[in-house]
Amino acid sequence: MRAGLKVGGWSAGLAALLVASVLVSAGIGSVSIPALTVAQVCLNALVLPTSLSLHGGGHTVAGVALPALSVSTTHVFHFQTPETSRIIVTTIRLPRIVLAALVGFALALAGTVMQGFFRNPMADPSIIGVSSGAAVGAVTVITVGVSLPFGLGLHGAAFLGGLLAAFGIYALGSRAGHTPVTTLLLAGVAVETFLGAVISFMLVESGNELRTAMYWLMGHLQNAGWGDVAATALTLPLLFGVLLGYRRHLNVLLLGEQDAQTLGIEVERTKRILLAVSALVTAIAVSVSGVIGFVGLVVPHVMRLLVGPDHRILLPTSALAGASFLVAADTVARSGPAQLPVGIVTAFVGAPFFLYLLRRREVSQL
C-alpha cells in the first residue's frame, strides 16, 4: 500500500510536469504562443465518437462487396484561437514535441531495466548493441542507398538493424540456454566496437550523404510527423506494460541470480524477456530519432536518488522523467538560430552532470 501511494504521488507529479513541459515547449519558437493558447488548441483537437454506421462503398474481397464503417465525431471544446497559432501548434511543433516525449520515455525506461538487469549503474540502452545496430542500418540506407522490401525506409532499416544487433549479442553471450551477465556485457562491448568501425568505414567512403548521416548519428527530431508519433504511441504502451509486469522480478534479480532462483524466479526466462522487450523499446526509439545519448544513463540515476531502487516505483517515474527531460532538451535544440541535433544537447547536459555525480560519489549502488 505504501509503495502504491508513493508511485502514485510521484507519477502524478511527473505527469503534470510532462504536460506543463509540452505546453510551454509548444509555445516557444520564432513565433511565441502563450501556454494558455496552446492548451486551448490542444483541447479543441479532442473529439468524441457520436455514432457508428455501415454503408456501401467498402472494399471488394473475392467478388463480395464489404460495407464501409463510418464514424461520426464531435469536438468537446470550442475555444476561440488564432488560426495561425492552431496551424503552428498542431502541424509543426506538437508532432515533434510529442515524439520527443515518447522517445525520452522509451530510452529512460530501457535504461532503468538495463541498469537493474546488469546490476551496473553504468549500463544504458546501448549496452545491448541496439543503438549501434540501428546506426549501421540507417547509415547504410543513407550512404549506400539500398532499398528494403515492403517499403521499409530509413526508420525500418534502423529498427531492423537494432534488433539484429541485440539478438546477435544475446546469441554470442549465451551458452546451453544460460546467459551469464558478464559474458553478455563483454559481447555487447565487442559487437558495439565492431559496428562502430563499420559505421566509420561507411562514413569515410560516403560522398554528399556524409552530412545527413552525421546528423542522424547525433540524434534529431526535426522531421517528426504524426505518422512517427502514431507508430511509436501504438507500440510503446504495450511494451511498457510488459516491463511493468516484471518490476518485482527486477527487484529480486538485484539480490543475485542464485537468490532469485531460490525465491522462485525463472531467471533465464526472465532475462530473455527483459532483454527482448528492452531491445524492442530502444529500437523503436532510435529508429525515429537517431542515436540520443545519456537519457537512459542519467535519468534513471537521478530518479534512483530521489525515489530509491524499488523498480515498482523507479520504472514509471524514470520513464516520465525521461519524457520531460527530452522535451526540454529538444526545446533548447530547436530554439537557437541554427537547429542543433538534440543528441548534442543531451550530451552537453548529461555528461557534466554524470561527472558531477561521480565526483560527489553519489552514483547509486544497485
Automatic annotation (TrEMBL):
Q: Which UniProt keywords apply?
A: Cell membrane, Membrane, Transmembrane, Transmembrane helix, Transport
**Which PANTHER family does this chain map to?**
ABC TRANSPORTER PERMEASE PROTEIN MJ0876-RELATED, FERRIC ENTEROBACTIN TRANSPORT SYSTEM PERMEASE PROTEIN
Q: Gene3D superfamilies of this UniProt entry?
A: ABC transporter involved in vitamin B12 uptake, BtuC
InterPro entries according to UniProt: ABC_BtuC-like, ABC_transptr_permease_BtuC
Q: Which GO terms describe its cellular component?
A: plasma membrane
Q: Which organism is it from?
A: Halocalculus aciditolerans
Chief location bin: membrane
Which GO terms label this protein's molecular function in UniProt?
transmembrane transporter activity
Q: How does it sit in the membrane?
A: Multi-pass membrane protein
Protein name per Swiss-Prot or TrEMBL: Cobalamin import system permease BtuC
Where found? Cell membrane
Indicate the transmembrane segments per the record: 97-118, 127-146, 152-172, 184-204, 224-246, 273-299, 340-358
Member of which family? Belongs to the binding-protein-dependent transport system permease family. FecCD subfamily.
